[in-house]
Every structure is written in structure tokens, then in C-alpha cells.
Amino acid sequence: MGCVTNVTIRQSASSGATVTLHGRFEILSLLGSIMPPPAPPGIMGLPIYLAGGQVVGGGVVGGLIASGPVMIMVASFMNVTFDRLPMDDDEVSVAIQNQHYQNGRHQHADISDLYGMPQNLLNNAGSLHTEMYAWGSARAVPKT
């Protein structure tokens, strides 16, 4: 798809904290949707998944800066509607647990929540350590 640089993302599992990733990242996935009213707020957005040694993702906050050609495919549909289906019992219990988590049991955003990795691998500014997103160099393959 292409590459972007210096991206600010917000992961939906956190309490609204944002993280700016500095450097060049390959786009693995970039999705978006715009729904007409009465679609509920939060259904729209621009989730992105990036690779740069580690895979990170979240909702795009602010602009995206391409660091080369980027291929984007767009589709438009007429008479779009939004329908919410009833949840299964398992999904209801997970939704209640997530709401409890977001409503105060966890007051601050833990940086390990954003990346799914221990905090000691991140620097104090909340950005990735350079070793975590640097591409490994290719190793020569011996001829047999």
C-alpha cells in the first residue's frame, strides 16, 4: 500500500491516550468509513495498522504524511443504513467488563496497553525505542 511517517494514533482499548510514532512505517491496513446520520458516534474513523519491526495500530489522530507513493482504493454506496444487531450473552458480559474498565477502574493509560509489550521497552516520552521499529538488515544466503 505504501509508507507513512510520524503518525499519531489512539488505540481504542486505552482511555483516549494518544501516541506519536516517529519514523517511517509500512502501511499494513488502512480502513475508513463515513456513515450518514443517525449512525452513532464512534462508528466512523480511520483505523491504521503499521509495521516497522513491530506491528502497531490504532485510530489515526491528525494528518497522515506519506513518505512515498501510497495506493488508496475508495468505494461509495448509495442509500447506506446502519443496523445494530442484538448481542449474544458472551458479548454482553465482555461489553460490561470493558465499560467497567473504561469507567474508572483503570484511571490512566498504561503504555503497555497501547503496544501489548512491557513498559521497560519504551522510553519515557512514550515513543518506541529505535530498536523496536528498526528494520533488520538482510543476511546473505550462502550458495550451495
TrEMBL record:
It holds the Pfam family PCC. The keyword Secreted does not apply. Keywords: DNA-binding, Membrane, Nucleus, Transcription, Transcription regulation, Transmembrane, Transmembrane helix. The chain crosses the membrane at residues 48-77. Residues 1-100 form the PPC domain. It comes from the Eukaryota. One of its GO terms (molecular function) is DNA binding. The keyword DNA repair does not apply. CDD domains: DUF296 (cd11378). PANTHER family: AT-HOOK MOTIF NUCLEAR-LOCALIZED PROTEIN 15, AT-HOOK MOTIF NUCLEAR-LOCALIZED PROTEIN 16. This is PPC domain-containing protein. It comes from Eucalyptus globulus.
